[in-house]
Specification:
Elements: E1 2-6, H1 10-22, E2 27-31, E3 43-47, H2 48-55, H3 59-67, E4 70-72, E5 75-79, E6 82-86, E7 91-95, H4 96-110, E8 113-115, E9 131-134, H5 141-145, H6 147-150, E10 152-166, E11 173-180, E12 183-193, E13 196-203, H7 205-211, H8 218-228, H9 230-233, E14 238-239, E15 246-253, E16 257-258, E17 261-263, H10 278-295, H11 299-329, H12 331-337, H13 340-348, H14 356-362, H15 364-382, E18 396-398, E19 401-403, E20 407-409, H16 424-435, E21 440-447, H17 464-480, E22 484-490, E23 517-518, E24 532-533, H18 536-556, E25 560-565, H19 570-575, H20 590-607, E26 614-619, H21 630-642, E27 647-651, H22 669-678, E28 683-685, H23 692-700, E29 706-709, H24 711-715, H25 719-726, H26 735-741
Parallel strand pairs: 1-2, 1-9, 2-8, 5-11, 9-17, 20-21, 20-29, 21-22, 22-25, 23-24, 25-26, 26-27, 27-28, 28-29
Antiparallel strand pairs: 3-7, 4-7, 5-6, 10-13, 10-14, 10-15, 11-12, 12-13, 16-17, 18-19
Helix pairs in contact: 1-4, 1-10, 3-4, 10-11, 14-15, 16-17, 17-18, 18-20, 21-22
C-alpha cells in the first residue's frame, strides 16, 4: 500500500505511524511545507478521557507524549475581583513543538518518509497512490482543490483572538475576564511545559476596533496585552509566534472523501479552542481511519466506514463547540447580568457537555455551594424557606402563584376531543402527570373558537360545556396533587382544519374543512388551504373570543394562563415578517407586527385576576432567512414585560414549512438564556430536555426559571418523582400512596 500524507502536523504524523505499524511494508510519505521545528502555536491540551483512547493505538508514542505532560485538575475563573475554583477536571498540556518532535522521531523509527520544506502544489500530483490523507489544516489546499466534491461550509465567527505565550506558569486552566475603556477581554491560559503557558486573548470585533490594535502588529499586541494584564502576568513577559489576530473559522464538510483522497483534522472540521484541541480531533480521526483501513477489504469501503463512524461523533463535538464559542462571543451578557457564582457555573457548563451532575462528581463541594446559593435565591424569591435541594426542587413564584418545583409538563395536543369537549383521556393524561410530581401542568393548545382548532379532535374553550369538562380536570389536580395547572389558549390560524396528528402532520382535511383566516393570505404549504386576510372586524371578534375563553378558564379554576404566540399559529403569524405582509398598522416593523398580539394580551390581562400569572409562548426564531431572530425575541420579551406578561415560554420555529432548524440537545435553551437576561423577564425553556441533569444545569446556570418537557413526560408520567429518588430528594406523596411508601406526610 502506498499512502501520501499531505500535512505534517500531529494528525498527519500520527496517521502515518498507525498505518506503518499496521502494514510495515507500506510506502508512506508525509509532506510538510515547513521546517521540522517550525510550528504555529505554543501548547496543546487534552483531557484524561482523550488520553486513554490513544494508549492502545501506539503505546510507544503515547508513553513519550504523556511523559512530557503538564497535568492539572483545577479551573480558575477570575471574574470581578473574585476567583472561582473548580477541581476534578483532569487536563494535560504539552508543547506543540515537542509533540511534533516526538511524532517525527516515531515516524523515522518506523520507516515513514518525511519531506519537509516541500510545497504540495497541485494535490492532483500526489494521487498516484492508494490513499491521499489530507491533513493540511484550516487553509487546506486539498479541500479547496476538490471543493465541489467535499462541499465545505466555512463560517468566520465575529470574535477576534490572538494566540500568545508567556513564561508565567499558571497553576490551573485559567480564565480572566477583564474590562477596560475599550471593552471586555477574555483570556484562556494554561501551562504546557515547565516555565511556559499558552495565553489566548479574545474579544469582540467592537472591542478590538475600540482598542486601535492592528491585525498583524505583533509588537503592538504584546505591549497592549502586557499593560492590560500586568498584575495577572506577575512580571512575566508575553511571547509572540506569528501572533496575528484572527476570526475563528468553523469548518464542516458534507463529504470527507473524494476518490482516493480523504480529509482529516482542521481541513475537514474545526472545533473552537474553548472546548478542546484541534490536535485531539485530528489524532482521533487518524485512529478511526487506520482502524477502518485495517478492517476493510479495500480503501473505498474503509472510507465509507470511516465517514459513517466518525462524522456523527465529530458533529456532536462541533455542536458543543459552537455552543461554547457562542458563550464566549456573548460573554458581555453574562458579565453584566450574572452574580459571580452563577457566572462561574454558566462558564463551566457552557458547552452542555458538562452538567450539574457531572460537575458534582468532579467537584462535590463546588456544586454544594451552587445548590445552597440557588436555594437561598429561590427562598427569597418565593417567600418560602426551603432546605438546600437540587435546583429543580426549589420553589418559584409568579404573582401569588407559588410552584413547588421548576418542572413543567408541556402542552401536548392529544387530538382526542369532540367539538372541543375533552373527556376521560384528558383527565387521565393530565391527572397522572400532576400526580407524577411536576410543579406545573399546562393543558394542550386549547382553541378559543371552533374554527381555531388545528384538527377536529382539538380541545376548546368556547362552549358552555367546556367549562365543566375542564373543571373536572382542574379539581382533580388541586385535590390529589400539589401541582398547579395552566391553560394554553390559541387559534390555529392558517394551520387549522388539518388531520389528526397521527393521520398526517399538517395535512389538510380531505372533507369537512372549515374556512381559515390569517394576517395575510399565505398558505402554510401549497397543499394547505389559502386563508383569508383578516379584517379589523375579524380581529375585534377574535379578541372577544380570547377574552371569553379566559373568563371561562377563570370559572374552571385554572391557576395560570398561557397565550400561544408561537409555532405558526394565528398570533405567531402576525409576529413573523415571513407570514405577515400587511401594509396597515398591523404589519411592517416588529412594533406593527406585535400590535394585534399585544392587543389580545392586554384584553385577556384585563379580565384575568391580578393575582394570577399569564405566560406567553413565543418562537424565538423562525429559522429562516428574512424571519425573526434571537435579537427580535429579546425585543418581543421586552414588549411582553411592558404589557404585564409574567414569564415567557421560549420555543422556536414551526412558523414556516421550509424552516432550516438547528436541532440538538437542549437546542432551544440558548434562546431562553438570551431572552431571560437581555429582556430581564423570567423564562421557561423547552426542547430536547430529557434528564434531571439537564434541568439542574439549565436552572443553576440561569438559562431559564422553569424547564418544560413533553416527551420525557410521555415516556414517564412520574418523571419528576423518579428524578427525586435518583438524587436522594424526598418528595411528598399523595395520601393514598403513603401507606405503600412508608412516607409520613409533613
Amino acid at each position: 500500500m502506498k499512502i501520501n500524507c499531505l500535512g505534517g502536523g500531529p494528525g498527519g504524523l500520527y496517521f502515518a505511524i498507525l498505518m506503518k505499524k499496521a502494514i510495515p511494508g507500506a510506502d508512506i510519505t508525509v509532506v510538510e511545507r515547513n521546517r521540522p521545528d517550525d510550528t504555529f502555536g505554543f501548547g496543546v491540551v487534552f483531557s484524561d478521557a482523550t488520553l486513554e483512547g490513544f494508549a492502545d493505538a501506539d503505546r510507544e508514542s503515547y508513553e513519550r507524549i504523556t511523559a512530557s505532560f503538564a497535568h492539572w485538575d483545577d479551573i480558575d475563573i477570575h471574574f470581578k475581583d473574585n476567583v472561582l475554583t473548580s477541581t476534578g477536571h483532569g487536563f494535560a498540556g504539552m508543547s506543540r513543538k515537542l509533540m511534533l518532535n516526538i511524532l517525527q522521531e516515531r515516524c523515522a523509527e518506523l520507516g515513514v518518509k518525511l519531506l519537509f520544506e516541500t510545497d504540495i502544489g497541485d494535490p492532483e500530483d500526489w494521487r498516484d497512490c492508494d490513499l491521499v490523507f489530507a491533513a493540511d489544516g484550516v487553509n487546506s489546499l486539498v479541500r479547496d482543490r476538490y471543493a465541489e466534491h467535499f462541499e465545505p461550509q466555512i463560517d468566520f465567527r465575529p470574535n477576534k483572538f490572538v494566540w500568545l505565550g508567556t513564561t508565567r506558569e499558571f497553576p490551573a486552566f485559567t480564565f480572566y475576564f477583564k474590562e477596560n475603556e475599550h471593552g471586555l477581554w477574555r483570556v484562556h491560559a494554561y501551562r504546557y511545559m515547565p516555565g511556559y503557558s499558552t495565553f489566548i486573548l479574545e474579544c469582540t470585533d467592537q472591542t478590538f476596533a475600540n482598542s486601535g490594535l492592528r491585525i498583524d502588529d505583533e509588537d503592538g499586541t504584546i505591549r497592549y496585552a502586557e499593560a492590560l494584564f500586568r498584575d495577572e502576568l506577575q512580571g512575566h513577559p508575553l511571547i509572540k509566534n506569528r501572533s496575528h489576530w484572527r476570526n475563528f473559522p468553523t469548518i464542516s464538510c458534507c463529504n470527507w472523501s473524494h476518490g482516493n483522497v480523504v480529509l482529516s483534522g482542521d481541513a475537514v472540521h474545526t472545533a473552537h479552542f474553548s472546548i478542546g484541541s484541534g490536535t485531539k480531533l485530528a489524532m482521533e480521526d487518524s485512529v478511526e481511519l487506520a482502524k477502518a483501513l485495517t478492517q476493510s477489504d479495500n480503501v473505498a469501503d474503509a472510507l465509507r466506514v470511516y465517514e459513517a463512524e466518525r462524522q456523527p461523533a465529530v458533529a456532536s463535538i462541533q455542536r458543543a463547540a459552537r455552543t461554547s464559542l457562542c458563550w464566549f462571543e456573548e460573554t458581555e451578557r453574562y458579565h453584566e447580568h450574572l452574580e459571580p457564582i452563577q457566572f462561574g457555573f454558566s462558564l463551566l457548563t457552557r458547552s452542555l457537555r458538562i452538567s450539574h451532575e457531572n460537575l458534582k462528581q468532579r467537584d462535590p463541594a463546588y456544586v454544594a455551594k451552587i445548590d445552597a446559593w440557588y436555594a437561598t435565591k429561590a427562598a427569597n424569591q418565593s417567600g418560602r424557606n426551603v432546605p438546600t435541594a437540587p435546583p429543580m426542587f426549589t420553589p418559584f413564584k409568579l404573582r401569588d402563584l407559588v410552584l413547588k418545583n421548576r418542572v413543567v409538563v408541556s402542552p401536548m395536543c392529544q387530538y382526542s376531543a369532540e367539538d372541543g369537549t375533552i373527556n376521560d383521556w384528558h383527565l387521565v393524561h393530565l391527572g397522572s402527570r400532576a400526580l407524577g410530581g411536576a410543579g406545573l401542568v399546562i393543558t394542550e393548545m386549547t382553541d378559543v373558537n371552533r374554527d381555531g382548532r388545528i384538527s377536529p379532535g382539538c380541545a376548546g374553550m368556547y362552549k358552555p360545556e367546556h367549562v365543566g369538562a375542564w373543571r373536572r380536570v382542574v379539581d382533580f389536580v388541586h385535590t390529589h396533587s400539589d401541582a398547579r395547572i395552566g391553560m394554553q389558549l390559541a387559534h390555529a390560524g392558517r394551520k387549522a382544519a388539518t388531520k389528526l396528528g397521527w393521520e398526517g402532520d399538517n395535512e389538510p382535511l380531505a372533507t369537512g374543512a372549515w374556512p381559515l383566516m390569517a394576517p395575510s393570505p399565505l398558505p402554510y404549504r401549497e397543499q394547505n388551504q389559502v386563508p383569508r386576510e383578516m379584517t379589523l372586524e375579524d380581529m375585534a371578534a377574535l379578541r372577544r373570543d380570547f377574552v371569553r375563553a379566559a373568563e371561562m378558564a377563570i370559572e374552571a379554576g385554572f391557576d395560570l394562563l398561557e397565550i400561544h404566540f408561537a409555532h405558526g399559529y394565528l398570533l405567531s403569524t402576525f409576529i413573523s415578517p415571513l407570514t405577515n405582509t400587511r401594509t396597515d398598522a398591523y404589519g411592517g416593523d416588529l412594533a406593527g407586527r406585535m400590535r394585534f398580539p399585544l392587543e389580545v394580551f392586554d384584553a385577556v390581562r384585563a379580565v384575568w385576576p391580578d393575582e394570577k400569572p399569564i405566560s406567553v409562548r413565543i418562537s424565538a426564531t423562525d429559522w429562516k432567512e428574512g424571519g425573526n431572530t434571537g435579537a427580535d425575541a429579546v425585543r418581543i420579551g421586552e414588549m411582553l414585560k411592558a404589557h404585564g406578561c409574567d414569564i415567557v415560554d421560549v420555543s422556536a420555529g414551526q412558523v414556516v414549512a421550509d424552516q432550516e432548524p438547528e436541532y440538538g440537545r437542549l437546542f432551544q435553551t440558548p434562546f431562553s438564556d438570551r431572552v431571560r437576561l437581555e429582556a430581564d423577564i423570567p423564562t421557561m425553556t423547552v426542547g430536547a430536555i430529557s434528564s434531571y441533569e439537564d434541568v439542574n444545569s439549565i436552572l443553576a446556570a440561569g438559562r431559564a426559571d422553569l424547564c418544560v418537557m413533553a416527551r420525557a413526560h410521555l415516556y414517564d408520567p412520574y418523571w419528576t418523582r423518579h428524578s427525586a429518588f435518583a438524587q436522594g430528594y424526598e418528595m411528598d406523596w399523595p395520601n393514598p400512596y403513603t401507606s405503600l411508601t412508608g412516607y409520613t406526610p409533613r
